[in-house]
Amino acid sequence: MALLNFRKRDEVARPGNAALQALLTGYSIEVMPRTAEKVEDFRALLAPGTRVYIAHIDGTPIEDMVATARRLAEDGFPVMPHFPARIIKDAATLKDWIARYQGEAGVDQALLLAGGVAAPQGDFHCSMQLLETGLFDAAGFTRLHVAGHPEGNRDIDPDGSDANVAEALRWKQEFSERTDAQMALATQFAFDADPIIAWCDRLRAEGITLPVHIGIAGPAKLQTLIKFAIACGVGPSLKVLQKRAMDVSKLLLPYEPTEVLTRLAEHKAAHPDFAVEQVHFFPLGGIKANANWAIEAGGAATRPAAAQT
Q1: Cα–Cα distance between 45 and 23 in angstroms, integer?
Q2: What is the value of pTM for the model shown?
Q3: Which single residue of 24, 181, 245, 259 has CA 20 to 30 Å from 88?
Q4: What keywords sit in the KW lines (predicted)?
């Protein structure tokens, strides 16, 4: 059963849930250069030290990516830019990007992924090839995250299995064991806790011990979530949203991730070795709405200094 919450804001349980507060502590959030431009002051929204991923959409100039990284770094936030393999022309381009991020923004961490384009535009087609260049290690990057797919990935496994994804994860696990980089799986978003729990259990059973930073869609209109879920290839969770959309009484009510996160938090409290280490938010309904929800749901644990009185 999917665990979605469409209750009015004043009906939602807030900071009384210690397990939820614990899970939300240290959450990360994702921005793009064009969405970051709309935020006047990130320090008024995010707690000090919040990791901010910068999504690199095909066609975004590297100059815009680096400028956004520099702004966030100057505001005191650890920055984790995306490195989508399929839009990187060659090793020289990759080396240039790494040098720019380091030299202009002090970046020492990255999310490596294949990227959303169907065909490679250069020499790389997957994150493993980026790792194999050794350029991140040579540049002293201390943290490298790679993608995870709790509900599978049809681009990687067109037959609906997870054979290719599983093989790639085993390779990344082995890579983490022979290098000094801190690694984690940053996942696609999902709306149901049960598939996430089952996926994490399966990882452990197969010897994949990389910590999971679980992707969660932030507060948004239901129509917005369905649009993004289709575009991003979200699995069974999409059916849950479509079912909700058939109920006219709920169609216009905002989605909030309270229930799915509460379920994961309670599971984590009962099973401390549960692979989910942190929450990573996709602010599909806006950065401000997501940050404000996290403040209310997590209480002081995630309240930015600028918002404290």
Answers
A1: 18
A2: 0.86
A3: 181
A4: Oxidoreductase
